[in-house]
Amino acid sequence: MKNNILYLVLFLVLLAVAGWLITENRGSGTLDKDGKERYAFSIKDTADIDKIIIKDKNPRQVILKRQSNHWTVNSEHRARKDAIRILLETLYRMEMRNFIEERMQETVIKRMTVYGKEVQVFKNGKLFKTYYVGTEAQDEMATYMLIKGSDQPFAVHIPGFNGYLSSRFFTEEHLWRSRDVITMNPRNIRSVEMYYPDSADASFKLHVFSPDSLYITNLRSGEVLRNRDKVKTNLFLNAFKNLKYEGLIVPSDPIYGRRDSLLASTPVFRMELTDVDGKTTSLSGYRIKGNAEMEMLEPDMERRDYDVDRMHGFINDEQMVLLQYYGLSSILKPRQYFLKN
């Protein structure tokens, strides 16, 4: 009986020693000294993050800064709320999935040097942590990352998320920029003019003197009528709380070279909104020619001279964007819309 107990104790001691040796040999990075590799990548107090800098090898760089009630990208434009939310959520939830075999580490670091991105996270005005984000793991369910100060990369993931994380750390400024055309409280709107060149009788100007004093001008005849349908008017004005475009058109896009000819052509519509301070914001939309390739792929498809889903557009005749008819359906209303009960 005593021998059995002695053997059991000896077995447990040997098992503990073996476990320690395995742990020590799994990696030689500086992060494994305190045994917290798994959570070293996450930042739990994201509310203190006030700046994030992302750089790639092109070189491109975006600087995201927290303001009082929004984020900016490169100090010039508002940043997309959804993109910022996803980035902060990534920093909060990501953690180490597994160690990288020693024979693979050199290859992973070399690829990180060529294709990787540097991510600097600042908290309360001070640099808090620097990541090097590499390529995705072979199973595309994790991303190779290295924390500055460590000599060992790890495969990092978000538990429960199927995919890699490198795509969340992008450096194209236009993809970070907010896609808002107008975000205005209806009480700050003084007038909205909708001009339809192909349907002059549908064109109008809505004057907002107060919530109970609304008038509509027929831009063709000049006739002014008091608008009594508050429901439809409120729906129309509320659309300007969150009016968005689909995407920004940048100089590298082929259509960008035709911006001058588009501006000189006849638009589908032109909207001008004036606020209580007299500032005017304009938006105009231009037809996109039908896709001949789609007709070849689907011969039975009804021929369309123009895209029925999208338009090219200009904000204040400067910023070129891609618009959706569906996204603008709340404001693309004819004058008769307000006159019918």
Written overview of the protein:
The chain is built from eight helices and 20 strands. Helices cover 23% and strands 33% of the residues. About 7% of the residues have low confidence. The chain has two domains: 144 residues, no CATH class; 160 residues, no CATH class. It has 341 residues and is an alpha+beta fold.
Provide the residue-averaged pLDDT: 87
Q: Assign a percent range to the helix content.
A: 10-25%
Count structural domains: 2
Characterize the overall form: elongated
Beta-strand residue percentage: 25-35%
Rg computed from alpha carbons, rounded to a whole number of angstroms: 29 Å
Count of helical stretches = 8
N-to-C order of helices and strands = HEEEEHEHEEEEHEEEEEHEEHEEHEEH
Contiguous runs where pLDDT drops below 50 for at least 5 residues: 17-35, 292-297
Key descriptive features of the protein:
341 residues; 2 domains; 9-stranded antiparallel beta sheet
How are the secondary structure elements laid out?
Blueprint: H1 2-25, E1 49-55, E2 61-66, E3 71-73, E4 77-78, H2 81-93, E5 95-99, H3 102-115, E6 117-123, E7 126-136, E8 143-147, E9 154-157, H4 173-176, E10 180-182, E11 189-195, E12 204-210, E13 213-218, E14 224-226, H5 230-238, E15 243-244, E16 247-248, H6 259-264, E17 269-275, E18 280-289, H7 292-297, E19 306-315, E20 319-324, H8 336-339
Antiparallel strand pairs: 1-2, 1-6, 2-3, 3-4, 5-9, 6-7, 7-8, 8-9, 10-15, 11-12, 11-17, 12-13, 13-14, 16-20, 17-18, 18-19, 19-20
